[in-house]
Amino acid sequence: MDERSHAIDAVASYFGVLSEPTRIRIMHSICEEEKTVSQIVDEIGASQTNVSRHLGIMHRSGVLERRKDGNQVYYRTADPAMVDLCRSVCKRISERMDEKMPLRRELLKLMPEAASRRKQRAP
After folding, report:
1. CA-to-CA distance for 44 and 48, rounded, in angstroms?
2. Is position 121 within any domain?
3. Which of the 8 DSSP states describes residue 74?
4. Which residues form the domain of 74?
5. Is position 59 within any domain?
6. CA distances to 2, 3, 5, 9, 48 from 65, in Å
7. For residues 43 and 29, is the Cβ–Cβ distance under 8 A?
8. Across residues 74-89, what is the average pLDDT?
9. What is the pTM for the complete model shown?
């Protein structure tokens, strides 16, 4: 495999992190502030096992960071480009929709603006 093929595989892998709806829900949940696994589970309505599996995938890919505090594990975004990518896609899809469609409003709310996103960098 040549260098170009390796680069293309790396790009496909990066985009693949968001190929699962649960991972997009997780990104939405923590794009502004870090949260515990329990908080993420409660917010997105998935099982803890499922959320933990996806968090592991996202952490290994470098999209998320985690820290442990006692029994709690906190996750936050590690890659602002991934949040920006999600936001851009949501915005692009919403631009194609009629302004009166409820889905359009939900897409625009899905990824809050970057200005408030950096609150999550707590020690």
Report:
1. 10
2. no
3. E
4. 3-116
5. yes
6. 31, 28, 28, 23, 18
7. yes
8. 89
9. 0.75
CATH code of the domain covering residue 72 = 1.10.10.10
> Is the residue at 23 inside a domain?
yes
| CA distance linking residue 83 with residue 110, whole number of Å | 11
Give domain status of residue 122, yes or no: no
Give exposure, 92-108, as e/b (b: 16+ Cβ within 10 Å). Answer: eebeeeeeeeeebeebb
Q: What pairs with residue 73 in β-bridges?
A: 68
Alpha helices per DSSP H over 2-122: 3-16, 21-30, 37-44, 48-60, 80-95, 102-110
pLDDT per residue as tens digits for the range 2-29: 888 889 988 888 888 888 999 999 998 9
Query: How many separate domains does the chain show?
Result: 1
d(CA 91, CA 19) in angstroms, rounded, equals 17
